[in-house]
Amino acid sequence: MNSPINITLNLPPVEFPPIPSVVIPYSRDACFVDRSATFYEICQKCAVPGSQTALVGLSGVGKSYLAIEYAFRTHERSPGTWVFWVIASNAARFEQSFRDIADYVRIRGRRNPRNDIFQLVYCWLWESKEKWILIFDDLRDVGLLNANANKEGCLANDLETTTIKPHGHRFHCERGSVLFTMRDKEEARKTVQQCGIINVGPMDKAQAFLLFEKKLGSQMSRNDVAELVAALRYIPLAIAQAAAHISQRASYYSVRHYLEKIKWYNHETAASHDGSQRTQTRELKNCLINTWKISFDYIRKIQPSTTNLLSFMSFFDRQGIPAVLLRSQNGRSKEEHPDDKEYGSSASSTNSDRLREDLAMLRNYCFISVNADGTTCEMYAIVRLMTRKWLQANNEFDRWNQQFIYHLNAKFPAGEHQNWQVCQAFFAHAMSAAYQKPEGWQSLAEWATLMYHAAWYALAKGSATDAEKLAAKSVKARRMALGESHKYTLNSVEMLGLAYNLRGRWGPAEELLRQVMEMRRTILGERHPETLTSMNNIAFTLDSKAYLSTAIALMERCCQLREAVLGPRHSSTISSLQALGVWRAKRVHPDSRG
Predict the structure, then answer these.
(1) How big is the chain by its Cα radius of gyration, in Å?
(2) 382-416 per-residue burial string, b: 16 or more CB within 10 A, e: under 16
(3) What is the pLDDT at residue 337?
(4) Is 573 helix (H, G, I), strand (E, B) or coil?
């Protein structure tokens, strides 16, 4: 859909809060190895009321797994304690996690776009009578906390709007504690005190050996296993990927085979760097890269469709990748598979079977994990990074980017209220696409439509900054691909004007909206529904600017035309009449609330 939009309000149903539980998108790891000293330190620091603790270490050392295990153990020990998980790797995931929390605990006003979702959750935590733990996983930019925690917000309900002031320093509350997982120690120091930082490094020899045994069993040469985990620098993710690779080839592939291969890869990698670069950090990263290479090269050789799927997935945000988006692609080109029409046929069964096989292989080789809900999956950060680098090196990056844009655009719906659940699940991936502008006229047009729909959803949920950025990208791309006066270009310009309106930039908003109205009036005529939509939106902007009399006059004209063109019972006519009634009441009784 590329139709213009109107502003409407929906009253929320009465809801009752659930009992405390663990709100985490991941299952407990059956192969978890207790790193007793580190885990004891986590428990001790997080037990202090109002504490803020950070697990700091390189990707792949197991920070998130420690946090997940701590979350489940805490709830077992204290069933009345809430445990919340926030994916903090980027702004879109950060916001979606807060919306998930608000949905789960059923915070009143969470669906009102005038409300700040962060302030709603912060205030709920502050006022909660139960204890709680808030875990921020993979926080890379502490600016996300500073931008959203220490500001005034608004709580709008059916009767009034109330200003909310932040309570103290970020999340400090005697009933709650906060745990971060982070890669950068300097960023961690901006977030917590030095005494709250826990350094997480590779495992010790005994822990690494036990992890390998849990992953692969104990029917192996202990000397070979000890030598292999040492060659893998005792990194949990590298050990898991090596064990997965050996397990998948168990009938003719041994620990010794893998050991010889990783030694050769490590030697080749070390030889490509001079001595000044051979730091411990470089060695640990290279080890993760090499375990990826070994499995990727093998999978590409025996089952190319699986590496095709991995290539496609690498363009998504790495977390919360919905399986439904993968079913529409499954490694095929958009020319071969333009839509979902064949899924009712025998070809559908074949595609579904292949997708299951490909996902199973990626999971078995420890390239992805499937989340607790079974409907989404997640790529490990190093896997995503190395896959994208491989695509760039092999001149396949643009091809797969175009595939990604095409299929995400085909599935991302308009931002209407009934589509919010789907939009929310896809939004982080649209934000990823926003920084991956494709080449080619057709792909650019598809990208512009995706940006438009994502901006629509951002506007509907009250994220004015995201709406403005996305709409601006859509405007620029559509002007380039379609021209200044194309109806889709006008829709994008109108969206940008509405985003300005939401941000309180009413002057620029009115200017853009009037441009759209005049062009529609010239091209379509004054009585066309899209022209009337422009008239409606300008009236709302004038009301926001406190030009009440002018807003009423314009809305009266809009209502007259909508009744004549659409009929008195049309939803757009009713919406405009309701707004007109509220504004007339405001003019008679200026202190009345609308």
Answers:
(1) 27
(2) bbbbbbbebbeeeeebeebbbbbbbbbbbbbbbbe
(3) 37
(4) helix
Return d(Cα 81, Cα 19) in angstroms, integer.
9
The closest of 267, 279, 241, 494 to 380, measured between CA atoms, is: 241
Judged by average pLDDT, the poorest of 189-193, 255-259, 269-273, 493-497 is 269-273
Q: How many CB atoms lie within 10 A of CB 494?
A: 25
pLDDT in tens, 2-43: 666 665 545 556 677 788 999 999 999 999 999 999 999 999
Residue bearing the bigger pLDDT, 478 or 173: 478
Residue 572 · residue 536 · CB < 8 Å = yes
Tokens 């709580």 locate to 155
Are 434 and 454 within 8 A, CB to CB?
yes
Q: Residue 382 in contact with residue 366, Cβ under 8 Å?
A: no
pTM equals 0.86
CB 410 within 8 A of CB 339: yes
Secondary-structure percent of the chain, ordered helix, strand, coil, rounded to 5: 60, 10, 30
The stretches of 323-415 forming alpha helices (DSSP H) are: 323-327, 346-364, 381-393, 397-411
Q: What whole-number distance in Å separates Cα of residue 54 and Cα of residue 63?
A: 10
Distance between CA atoms of residues 227 and 223, nearest Å: 6
Is residue 517 within 8 A of residue 538, CB to CB? The reply is yes
- CA–CA separation, 561 and 539 (whole Å): 14
| CA 223/CA 232 separation, integer angstroms | 14
Of 536, 552, 451, which Cα lies nearest the Cα of 493? 451
- What tokens were used for 162? 């109330």
For 411, the token pair is 């599935």
